[in-house]
Amino acid sequence: MAEEEDETYNDTNRAFLQAFLSRSTLTYEEAKPLLAAIFTAHERHETLPGDVTEADFNTYINSANNAISPLDLEIRSTFHQTTRTRVYALVNSTSDSMSQIATSYSADEIGFLKRVLDAMFETYNTQRREIMAVTSIQAIQLAKPSAENRRETQNGSETQGSVGLGLTMIQSEKMLKSLVDEGWLEKSRKGFYSLSPRALMELRGWLIETYNDDEDEEEIGNRVLKIKLCYACKEIITTNFFRVQKSRKCPLCKTDWTGEDFVGERAAAMTSRAQQRNGNSLDASLTPRVIAESKDDTSEEAEEEIGEAEDEEGGEGEEVEEEEREPAEEDGEDEEDSER
User: Fold this and answer.
1) What is the rounded CA–CA span in Å between residue 34 and residue 297?
2) Helix (H, G, I), strand (E, B), or coil: what is residue 87?
3) What is the DSSP letter of 142?
4) Can you tell me the distance from the alpha carbon of 170 to that of 213, in angstroms, rounded to the nearest whole number?
């Protein structure tokens, strides 16, 4: 295994790095059969995936980082926000803006991606609902730039990502699929697109610089932070923190979570339900299918509360019916007495 290998960079390290480059991301569990195959070929006797330790994996990650560092590349890791699995990805360590993914896409495609990101972190990321995701319909509606964006481009006030006439709906669908396949976006079973761990690591600096208000430090208390960091792991949060934590208290202010304030696609579902209860019109871009499916994702605690509320309503209805029947029975008895 790793401790038996020569400390110099050898063919096993090159094979591991080549395999990593062929993937968008890698986890320890995914790396175990990969390293086992490399060890088997190099040592000429079979090595099982279960024989590969996490120390072996970390050794090869460190060696790969040392090899690619002169190329301004780095293998970084973060926890997946829903599965809590540590994910490793190859990122550009010195790139500015979104140039790291601009090489394989046209200006119109980059412009579409920029509009999708604006929708995630501006349009659908407010103090009332921090969704930070878009549905398929919302994303496709951004295929072409708005008239205002086109005017700004003509005046020369916009940079890369705003030029061109945009994409067709078919092209935008293909673009979204390509971004998912390459590991830049993730698509949930309810049809919401959000940034993947790879994208959050690669675009971290650009997202903070672009979407957080740039105010004086003395006014930081009034800043509107569109991009929020977890106080524990210091990573960007785009989904509900307490869904993956045992504690129900904020690690900073120690305030209990209400159980009703969500971050991510659940925020869209909760907002839609609130609008339905208040009789307000729903967001036209939130399809009925997405709203209906979101009901299946209700937490066990919320389902229990809903069930208790329904039982109480049902109990009250039964009491009212019994009260209505009692006067009716009394009236019937009075009529029988009068007839006698």
Assistant:
1) 35
2) strand
3) T
4) 35
- Return the closest-CA partner of residue 145 out of 118, 121, 125, 170: 118
The Cα 63–Cα 69 span in angstroms is: 10
- The helix/strand count (H/E) of the chain reads as 13, 6
What pLDDT, in 10s, does the model give residues 145-192? 987 665 555 555 444 444 568 899 999 999 999 999 999 999 998 899
CA distance 132 to 121: 5
Asked if 88 contacts 26 with a C-beta cutoff of 8 angstroms, the reply is yes
Contacts of 273 (CB under 8 A, 6+ apart): 291
Is 187:180 a contact under the CB 8 Å cutoff? yes
Instruction: Give the total residue count for the chain.
Output: 340
* Residues 6 or more apart in contact with residue 213 via CB below 8 angstroms: 223, 224, 225
How many Å from the N-terminal Cα to the C-terminal Cα in the chain?
Answer: 103
> Where do we find the tokens 């993730």?
186
pTM of structure: 0.68
Q: What is the DSSP letter of 232?
A: T
